Amino acid sequence: MAEFRFDIKPLFPLEIIKVTSNLLPHTFRGDRRQCLDATSKMSEVIDRLGQLSAVSQGLNKPVTTAQRLRMSENQTIYLLSDTSYGANGVVMGLLKVGTKDLYLFDEQGRTRKVEQTPSILDFYIHESRQRGGLGKHLFEYMLTDQNWTPVKCSIDRPSEKLLNFFKKHYGLVRTIPQANNFVLYEGFFDEEASMGNGNGKSPAQSNGGMHITSSPNTQLFGAAYLGDEANKRSGRNNGSQQPNPLLHQITQISPSGRYGAPRPTCSMAEIIHAGSGKSGKSGGSAESSSGGNDIAEMTAQLQKLQSGSDHDNASIHTEADLEPEPEPEPEPEPEPEVVTPQTPHTPPKSHTSTPPEVSHVEIAESIIGDNRRAPAFQLSKQHTGMKNRSFGVGMAVMPSTKMEFNQLEREDFGVVKINRPLGNAISPGQDNTDAMSTVSSVGGLTDQGYNDLKFYHNKLW
Ligand SMILES: CC(=O)SCCNC(=O)CCNC(=O)[C@H](O)C(C)(C)COP(=O)(O)OP(=O)(O)OC[C@H]1O[C@@H](n2cnc3c(N)ncnc32)[C@H](O)[C@@H]1OP(=O)(O)O
């Protein structure tokens, strides 16, 4: 348990105290000197518990620090103590909550901007006291104090233990898939489920903040981008939408828990890999499939070309058939104030949301063309000395399928050298890293009369 060099009893007149950005216990009364002393000690307590929580969750840096709390506007930390333990007492647990403005998907896959969503941000009970009911005790205190209900809480990358906690104590299992790091349980958007929270409104509604948005992602990916299950559900509900057999959601079964929570995907990657068709929709709703250039069609054409088959009914190869690449473990991120989802998707069996994984090697190649294909056999620069041969690199500036250039110096990423004479040593005093200086000094042309483009880059092949 977290013991300190000072007596914690003055800080903890109650078993549970709450602390906000002033870093003082909500019970605090004292003069300026006592205030400074209390904030200093409380900072130490928060930093220690935050550190223990991070270690317990396998995070490489704490989600909770005194400094972060001090800078926050709407976060509260609840601390659970046992002042009877030892001479100075001990602190046994921490629960950090706050409100967030989030873009969320509801159960029909519509994007909603929910302002001041109740959020569980960090939760920790010391290992020696876990599974003894203290977590529930602390959580219930917070719910009462904040006037929240569990089903209305969003949870920032819940751990496996916390998922079990919600299942055991509140019967919450089924989640609404999100594309950000937050997990919502079914019922979050229900009006009636919010009646028990005291004011008859959901937390979001009570803050006047929930409305369907026309976010860029909704326009880009459509509201029915949830795959078959969601399409069926919405089809049952309103009878207007039919599942499109060509449109499978991009699904990856990932471990649930803090690291298993979905990461936002790169919007640019989505656009590059999936958005080149005129329809502009990657997964698409039933309505979105009208464009002649959509991915399914392009992929089918590619398949036909590859197999040499011209059967009209060749099977369609969709994103769901492609092997997802293993996802690197995401680092813990500071809680975003506004999180914009990229794509919704169907919940995996674990009932936790997973990130959409776009892996369109073939599609990307079909879009870009053969220029991007690597040769069947290629010599590396180890084989060819310092001569590098690059295919497609720098296509943005050279309309050639092949580029050759000398490599006399070390490789650095992203440095583009222009106008240095091909193969020549750099003259003394010439700035080797400044393209501008070489532009003016050489006149811009090589012996062959061409501009010399020099690329320094990491190994790409
Ligand atoms: C947004 C976030 O903060 S995510 C991070 C959540 N925090 C962590 O994972 C840190 C490590 N875990 C903990 O600190 C605690 O286990 C907490 C805070 C999740 C729960 O506190 P506890 O005091 O253990 O909760 P409490 O005793 O009230 O409830 C126990 C239930 O929680 C779940 N739980 C607690 N520990 C575990 C565990 N090791 N394995 C699986 N489930 C667990 C179970 O449902 C358990 O019920 P059970 O013992 O009948 O199986």
From TrEMBL:
Claim: Acyltransferase is one of the keywords in the record: yes
Superkingdom in the source lineage: Eukaryota
Ranges of Basic and acidic residues composition bias in the record: 309-320
Enzyme class (EC, first level): transferase
GO biological process terms held by the UniProt record: neuron development; regulation of microtubule cytoskeleton organization
Amino acid composition bias (Polar residues), ranges on this chain: 236-255
Molecular-function annotations in GO: tubulin N-acetyltransferase activity
PANTHER family reported for this sequence: ALPHA-TUBULIN N-ACETYLTRANSFERASE 1
Function: Specifically acetylates 'Lys-40' in alpha-tubulin on the lumenal side of microtubules. Promotes microtubule destabilization and accelerates microtubule dynamics; this activity may be independent of acetylation activity. Acetylates alpha-tubulin with a slow enzymatic rate, due to a catalytic site that is not optimized for acetyl transfer. Enters the microtubule through each end and diffuses quickly throughout the lumen of microtubules.
UniProt protein name: Alpha-tubulin N-acetyltransferase
Taxonomic source organism: Drosophila lebanonensis (Fruit fly)
